[in-house]
């Protein structure tokens, strides 16, 4: 039986072994060639993935103009704690300090960054440029000048589901 001892070579070492100098490599990168890192594809890098809850706890339409979905709080248990929030499709749903559920458009109207709920301030905040929105979606502090869209929420009598509608 024959064994092989394989050593890993760094990318720069490999390119230098081909006779390419550092200045040649820099020229390739600066002029925008199709040289890519090992293992990459020709496709663009995927967009960052927003945090999502277990889809088995969500039913209905979570994106677009016809928002209408139900959250099963026995599966999405994070939303049973005051101050917690979840990004669900195009919305952010939070349990406020008063113990009520609110649902707003998830993207700041300034530059589209996902907003977050802040329990201590009882508001929604954009971490990108510090815009602040009330629980009704109104702008409390810019640079955003347009309110966040609000959605209706209703808690079931047994407290196990929240329905969000446009």
Features:
mainly beta; 2 helices; 11 strands; 10% helix
Question: Could you characterize what this model shows?
Answer:
The protein is mainly beta. 10% of the residues lie in helices and 27% in strands. The chain contains two helices and eleven strands, in the order H-H-E-E-E-E-E-E-E-E-E-E-E. The chain has helices spanning 11-17, 22-30, and strands at 58-61, 68-72, 85-88, 91-95, 101-105, 116-118, 123-125, 132-133, 139-141, 150-155, 161-165. The radius of gyration is 24 Å and the shape is globular. The termini are far apart.
Helices and strands in order, then pairings?
Layout: H1 11-17, H2 22-30, E1 58-61, E2 68-72, E3 85-88, E4 91-95, E5 101-105, E6 116-118, E7 123-125, E8 132-133, E9 139-141, E10 150-155, E11 161-165
Antiparallel strand pairs: 1-2, 2-11, 3-4, 4-5, 5-10, 6-7, 7-8, 8-9, 10-11
Q: Treating each run of at least 4 consecutive H or I residues as one helix, how many helices?
A: 2
Round the Cα radius of gyration to an integer and report it. Answer: 24 Å
Structural class, from helix and strand content? mainly beta
Largest beta-sheet characterization: 7 strands, antiparallel
On the 0 to 100 scale, the average pLDDT is: 78
Helical proportion, percent range? under 10%
- Total number of strands: 11
Low-confidence stretches: 27-54
Proportion of beta-strand residues: 25-35%
Strand line-up of the largest beta sheet:
1-2-11-10-5-4-3
Shape: globular
- Secondary-structure element pattern, one letter each: HHEEEEEEEEEEE
How far the N terminus sits from the C terminus, by CA atoms, comes to: 69 Å
